[in-house]
């Protein structure tokens, strides 16, 4: 447990990539893979991969490589994908609707319980099986339903207020698409997807290559 | 110029954040700000901020803080936002449509020139002023039109093939939403938005807090 606390953000950010590649190997019926082969596939060095896996106690035997199924299950468990998570989306604009329609998340174990928006024209509409409700009902919905993750797709100006409502009602994780660094207590996890920042980074890199 | 080559990815990733906060200060008519005040706003330490700005030659005078307008303009220029960029979106599913509808990007200087999809039902539909075309016409479109950035919103299995078409036609930047690490020559920049990986990171962080 103490060991886990020391795991760096860099390692954590690589875990979902391992998970994705291992899922692909499983789909292709690959039973066993060496760190060298995995390295060629993922693009991290073999020693990086061994070091990362050692953070979690190490899998695989010297000279035999890794059992793909076991490694996949271990990483699932480390990521917490052996459980299911209930989610709500706040903000049913373009991004909110795109996320609601993204079937991949259901397969990972994420159950969308509600969608909320300020726009009355959207109320009552359904995305897949979930109705879009008035954002004013978010607080009471959260009091009556257990929700693990709030997916924040509202404009910048509303983001902090909605985040506060989520936090006050015990939501433990916020996936934040609003272009704002929200303030939350240390007991709540936030992962930002700041699309504009990502696009601006791309432009910087393109221009830098030309210099 | 040589100096710029040494700028670390960590600094580069912070630039869009500076840009966003400075734009907000400008909107609020703030003329001048100290690294300490900027630090409280952005959440990086003041010494981090001074160090970052020094990478680009340094702005601001000791004891006087930074001129917000000047700093904003400088960072715009460093990011390459003093130019405009023509873009195409490939894949008009949920994410592709969301990006096409995102008006913020136009303001930054990104002009959407085309949207391409494999699905005949979408062909001829318009998102804002841009028609969705058959993906089979992408290659000839790119030969006839200058495109700087390709926004890749196709499924994993198609992503590499589309990326190759973009690269072969001189596209210099790929903003990749497909859950795949695409292979491109060193002369092409790629910025990934891997939504599933971001969500899995959030879940890891949530579970880690509970330990």
Question: Topology, please?
Answer:
2 copies of one chain form a homodimer.
Chain A: H1 2-5, H2 9-27, E1 32-33, H3 35-42, H4 46-55, E2 66-67, H5 68-79, E3 85-90, H6 94-100, H7 104-108, E4 110-117, E5 126-127, E6 130-134, H8 138-144, E7 149-152, H9 156-168, E8 173-176, E9 189-192, H10 195-210
Parallel strand pairs in A: 3-4, 3-7, 4-6, 7-8, 8-9
Antiparallel strand pairs in A: 1-2, 5-6
Give a nutshell description of this structure.
Chain A has 211 residues and is α/β, with parallel strands linked by helices. Chain A has ten helices and nine strands. Chains A, B: Homodimer.
Please provide a written account of the structure:
Chains A, B: Belongs to the transcriptional regulatory Rex family. Chains A, B: GO terms for molecular function: DNA binding; DNA-binding transcription factor activity. Chains A, B: InterPro entries: CoA-bd, NAD(P)-bd_dom_sf, Rex_actinobacterial-type, Rex_DNA-bd_C_dom, Tscrpt_rep_Rex, WH-like_DNA-bd_sf, WH_DNA-bd_sf. Chains A, B: NAD(+) binds at residues 91-96. The structure is a homodimer of 211-residue chains. The first copy, chain A, has 211 residues and is of the alpha/beta class. Chain A folds into two domains: 2-79, Arc Repressor Mutant, subunit A; 85-197, NAD(P)-binding Rossmann-like Domain (Rossmann fold, 3-Layer(aba) Sandwich), CATH 3.40.50. The first copy, chain A, is 48% helix and 18% strand. Chain A contains ten helices and nine strands. In chain A, strands 5-6-4-3-7-8-9 form a seven-stranded mixed beta sheet, with helices on both faces. In chain A, strand 5 and strand 6 (130-134) form a beta hairpin. In chain A, helix 2 (9-27) crosses helix 5 and helix 3 crosses helix 4 (46-55). The first copy, chain A, starts with a helix and ends with a helix. The relative contact order of chain A is 0.09.
């Amino acid at each position: 447990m103490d060991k886990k606390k020391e795991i760096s953000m860099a390692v954590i950010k690589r875990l979902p990539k391992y998970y994705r590649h291992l899922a692909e190997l499983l789909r292709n019926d690959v039973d066993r893979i060496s760190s060298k082969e995995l390295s060629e596939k993922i693009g991290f060095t073999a020693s990086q991969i061994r070091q990362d896996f050692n953070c979690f106690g190490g899998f695989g035997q010297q000279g035999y490589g890794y059992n793909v199924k076991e490694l996949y299950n271990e990483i699932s468990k480390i990521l917490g994908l052996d459980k299911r998570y209930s989610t709500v989306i706040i903000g049913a604009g373009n991004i909110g609707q795109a996320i609601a329609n993204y079937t991949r998340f259901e397969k990972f174990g994420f159950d969308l319980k509600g969608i909320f928006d300020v726009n009355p024209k959207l109320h009552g509409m359904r995305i897949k099986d979930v109705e879009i409700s008035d954002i004013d009902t978010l607080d009471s919905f959260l009091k009556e339903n257990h929700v693990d993750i709030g997916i924040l797709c509202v404009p910048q100006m509303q983001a902090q207020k909605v985040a506060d409502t989520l936090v006050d009602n015990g939501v433990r994780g916020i996936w934040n698409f609003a272009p704002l660094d929200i303030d939350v207590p240390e007991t709540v996890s936030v992962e930002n997807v700041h699309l504009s920042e990502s696009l601006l980074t791309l432009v910087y890199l393109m221009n830098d290559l030309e210099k």
